[in-house]
Design goal:
GO molecular function, one term: peptide-methionine (S)-S-oxide reductase activity
Helix content: 25-40%
Function: Has an important function as a repair enzyme for proteins that have been inactivated by oxidation. Catalyzes the reversible oxidation-reduction of methionine sulfoxide in proteins to methionine.
Catalytic activity: L-methionyl-[protein] + [thioredoxin]-disulfide + H2O = L-methionyl-(S)-S-oxide-[protein] + [thioredoxin]-dithiol; [thioredoxin]-disulfide + L-methionine + H2O = L-methionine (S)-S-oxide + [thioredoxin]-dithiol
Family: Belongs to the MsrA Met sulfoxide reductase family.
Number of domains: 1
Keywords: Oxidoreductase, Signal
Largest sheet: 6 strands, mixed
CATH superfamily: Peptide methionine sulphoxide reductase MsrA
Shape: globular
Structural class: alpha+beta
CATH topology: Peptide Methionine Sulfoxide Reductase, Chain A
Order of helices and strands: HEHEHEHEEEHEEHHH
């Protein structure tokens, strides 16, 4: 289902109520986004960088969370986990593609570890929700950790078990650990959305209850590595 905000509000002309990702973009915005993506892609071309993939509901929010982690060089919103090649947002939202909204994180392992990225992931999701994330419900908004090799799996499973063993952590932990699949970048207008449309983004994030729920789940650790 599409990402709907479950309330009726009167908004100013600067902020219109709409399904969060179902927004078109102008040609100039698309070109600017493409140029920005080219710049970050070039920066992330080094063989010294590593890649991690996480799904945590709205990829706009997950992208912002990881961009704030020191050592993260690039984040890309996209789709993974399903069988449809090069899907569109509309396909992932409305059709049975098997894909989740996800974020590919390119990072410098000499600055930040995969373990730290896992901690940041947990503190930015509701791992107890098996229907979606926050106000966004449906298969494409499920949380998941996609592991690319045995070491990532070992670390991911250890971090999940540590939460299960922690009496103070949220429970039950239902977020799965899955084998990495082909990752497809989302449309340009989704990339760095929180920077390009901050007013709309912050309205959506707050109205969806993401910040409040994270604080309820994680306390002072909410949203942090």
């Amino acid at each position: 289902m599409m990402r709907w905000i479950a309330m009726t509000l009167t908004l100013t002309a600067a902020v219109t109520m709409l399904p969060a990702c179902a927004e078109s973009t102008s040609g100039n915005e698309t070109e600017a986004a493409a140029a920005a993506n080219d710049d970050t892609s070039e920066a992330a071309a080094s063989d010294d960088l590593a890649t991690a993939v996480f799904a945590g509901g709205c990829f706009w929010c997950v992208e912002q969370a990881f961009d704030e982690v020191r050592g993260v060089v690039e984040t890309i919103s996209g789709y993974t986990g399903g069988d449809v090649e090069d899907p569109s947002y509309e396909q992932v939202t409305y059709e049975d593609t098997g894909h989740l909204e996800a974020v590919q994180v390119r990072y410098d392992p000499s600055i930040v570890t995969y373990q730290t990225l896992l901690e940041s992931f947990w503190h930015n999701v509701d791992p107890t929700d098996d229907r979606g994330q926050f106000c966004d419900k449906g298969h494409s908004y499920l949380s998941a950790i996609f592991v690319a090799d045995d070491e990532q799996r070992r670390l991911a499973e250890a971090s999940r078990q540590a939460l299960k063993d922690d009496a103070d952590a949220p429970s039950p932990i239902v977020t799965p650990i899955r084998e990495a699949r082909t990752f497809y970048a989302a449309e340009d207008y989704h990339q760095n959305y929180y920077e390009k449309k901050p007013v709309r983004y912050n309205f959506y994030k707050n109205a969806c209850g993401r910040t409040d729920r994270l604080e309820e789940l994680w306390g002072d650790a909410a949203g942090k590595p």
